[in-house]
């Protein structure tokens, strides 16, 4: 391969790989700083044993979930797990949505996927029974009765985030088990990146023919 055609391909590949390495979920406070307010999973959370088995023994409160990503577009997969609720609750993130009729046992239920972009993750939880909704940006403050209805946990690699919804807010029933959602950030498979590389090689070949 001619080096002048190989160089752009190598540069694009490096950029794509950099995007993979720098992408991930992060929990932020209102001022944009990483959040450090941490609470243990409440003892009266109906799915405490399941959460601990999944490696989640605590969660952050009073923050917003953001996605730090560089150049590579990605996808967020949404999976709903248990729900202990008298209300009908709904989770929505872009094209993915899940509505529970009330209590559900612990089991992975795919709610779909949506395109990911850098910045605040624009999800919303709603208690449809009482027409009350709360979005990611509103999940702030840490005092009793404040808007901290969504507990958050992010994996060390930043690829997975768990959201624990409490449909009564941070008050008497503050156990964060009314709807539990897992978000998984992923990038295109290596095969897709390979196809992109072949496409770039094809463009280079066409250019060589035109200039021959």
Proportion of strand residues? 25-35%
Strand order of the largest sheet: 8-5-14-13-12
Detail the poorly predicted runs.
2-21, 192-197
Shape: globular
Q: Assign the structural class, choosing from mainly alpha, mainly beta, alpha/beta, alpha+beta, or little secondary structure.
A: alpha+beta
Roughly how many Å apart are the termini? Answer: 15 Å
The succession of helices and strands, N to C, reads HEEHEEEEEEEEEEEEH
The biggest beta sheet reads: 5 strands, antiparallel
Average pLDDT level: 78
Q: How would you portray this structure in words?
A:
The model is unreliable at about 1-20 and about 190-195 (pLDDT under 50). The protein has helices spanning about 5-20, 50-55, 190-210; strands at about 25-30, 40, 60, 65-70, 75-80, 90-95, 95-100, 110-115, 120, 125, 130-135, 150-155, 160-165, 180-185. A hairpin with a 2-residue loop joins strand 6 (about 90-95) and strand 7 (about 95-100). The protein is built from three helices and 14 strands.
Defining traits:
33% strand; alpha+beta; 3 helices; five-stranded antiparallel β-sheet; 212 residues; disordered N terminus; four-stranded antiparallel β-sheet
Helices and strands in order:
Layout: H1 3-21, E1 24-28, E2 38-40, H2 48-53, E3 58-60, E4 64-68, E5 74-80, E6 89-93, E7 96-100, E8 109-116, E9 119-120, E10 123-127, E11 132-135, E12 150-154, E13 160-165, E14 179-186, H3 190-211
Antiparallel strand pairs: 1-4, 2-3, 4-9, 5-8, 5-14, 6-7, 6-10, 10-11, 12-13, 13-14
Helix pairs in contact: 1-3
């Amino acid at each position: 391969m001619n080096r002048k055609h190989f160089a752009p391909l190598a540069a694009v590949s490096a950029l794509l790989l950099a995007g993979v390495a720098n992408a991930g979920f992060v929990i932020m406070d209102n001022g944009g700083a990483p959040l450090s307010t941490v609470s243990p999973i409440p003892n009266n959370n109906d799915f405490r044993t399941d959460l601990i088995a999944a490696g989640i023994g605590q969660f952050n409160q009073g923050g917003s979930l953001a996605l730090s990503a560089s150049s590579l577009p990605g996808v967020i997969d949404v999976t709903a797990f248990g729900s202990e609720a008298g209300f009908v609750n709904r989770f929505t993130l872009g094209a993915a949505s899940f509505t529970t009729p009330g209590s559900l046992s612990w089991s992975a239920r795919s709610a779909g996927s949506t395109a990911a972009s850098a910045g605040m993750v624009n999800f919303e939880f709603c208690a449809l029974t009482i027409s009350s909704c709360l979005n990611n940006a509103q999940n702030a403050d840490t005092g009793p009765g404040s808007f901290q209805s969504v507990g958050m946990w992010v994996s060390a690699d930043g690829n997975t985030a768990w959201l624990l919804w409490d449909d009564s807010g941070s008050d008497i029933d503050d156990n964060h088990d009314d709807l539990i959602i897992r978000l998984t950030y992923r990038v295109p498979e290596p095969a897709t990146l390979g196809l992109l590389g072949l496409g770039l090689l094809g463009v280079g070949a066409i250019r060589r023919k035109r200039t021959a």
